[in-house]
Amino acid sequence: MNKHYVYILTNKNKTVLYTGVTNDLTRRLIEHIDNIEQGKKTFAAKYRCKHLLYYEQYDWIQETIAREKEIKGWVRAKKVNLIKSINLDLDFLEEGFLFT
Q1: Which domain range does residue 37 map to?
Q2: Which residue blocks in the chain are alpha helix, DSSP H?
Q3: How many domains does the chain have?
Q4: Model pLDDT for residues 13-66, shown as the tens digit of each residue
Q5: Of 86, 17, 72, nearest to 96 (Cα)?
Q6: Residue 37 belongs to domain with CATH number
Q7: For 65-79, how does the pLDDT look when each residue is reduced to its tens digit (9 = 90+)?
């Protein structure tokens, strides 16, 4: 069974939040980094969002996409509260996916 993820990224100073969906979180994190390095014109690249703050895992893509849309509709404070529910100090979590 495939796994799907909703994830939230930020930049170094934690001033921007980016919410996305993927079926391979490691690959997607690498793509975000590559997009920044290549100067791509994506939202995440423009704001240098490459640090993972939060993710949820799902079995079904439909529920993953629905959750992404739900989170994207929230105000920043509600997103930060969600992140802090599992990552109180807003630590960067990508190391567990990129360097394991």
Answers
A1: 4-98
A2: 25-37, 43-46, 61-72, 76-84, 95-98
A3: 1
A4: 999 999 999 999 999 999 999 999 999 999 999 999 999 999 999 999 999 999
A5: 86
A6: 3.40.1440
A7: 999 999 999 999 999
